[in-house]
Fold this protein.
Amino acid sequence: MNYEFSDFTIPFYTNLTSIFSRSIYTFDSMESMALFKDNRNKMDKRASLNKLPSGQILGVPLFQCQLKKDASYLMSRDHNNLIIYKYIILPIDEKDENRQVLMNKFLKDREYKLVCENIFYNVSIYKIVYSEIKNKKDFFSLDKERKYCLKFRNDSITMHYYVLNDSVRVESSYFNNSKWIYNNNFNNALINGIFLNNNYKLVLNDNRILCEFDDSNRSNKWVTSTIDKHMGVLRFSNYIKPPAFSPNGMQVYHDNEFLSDFNEKIICMTFVLITHQKFNYKNSLTPGGVFVINNNTSSTTSNNTFIFL
């Protein structure tokens, strides 16, 4: 099957030194991710950020996904609920006449917190609760293994994992009759196993591909001494290419909406894919099979396969 993806990529990254948050981040470019990683997730110094001529700020995540600290937080990791934050960049100057307009647009009636201020670039960095995800076991279904319910302000998405099927079915007004397929398995048979390279594609009923998440080029797959991990990239098909900002534009402020709502929801589903795959691998471990890293400890078994936990 022939398909083309745009040059625009959304990289995903996690820092395994963060014992408490265990966050996964995503960015609008590899350059922005590298800046965030090199500054150890700090955004308040001069070297932390980079402002393009267009006004766009590099070094700040688009989204952050982490375990939600509710009752599920005390359960095993494969039962944890998730929460996704969206980062918002606003002018720091209280006298800026557009600051209040932008605050009303992005922060009003939202749950948010101030992350930091960067006085060198005159910006305040906030994050808002963008989605809360319920992780549910389908106890009364013979074929459904688990479902994730993504709740947004005015919409929801349900992702169904099946017992004997690699595909992840999606229920949503945005993605009607669509599914994520694993490692190009367009059929319904189960081929899942311990793969070194994982690839998911979001496809419609007619097998048109909307996007793919691929981790075959993730960083340091075999090297355990590096703690910062590039977890893979999300690529959109050319016909749904998001509106990337122009480096030659005359934009005054950072654009917090350069991605469409459609693409932002795909990013949120990708967080679920990554999280589920991590815990699925962990629960599938058998003696003599897998190299495991958990927080800051590690153990090695015969096959020396790298797994993110």
Summary: Residues 191-196, 244-250, 284-309 have pLDDT under 50 and may be disordered. The first helix runs from residue 30 to 38. The helical segments are 30-38, 99-106, 261-283.
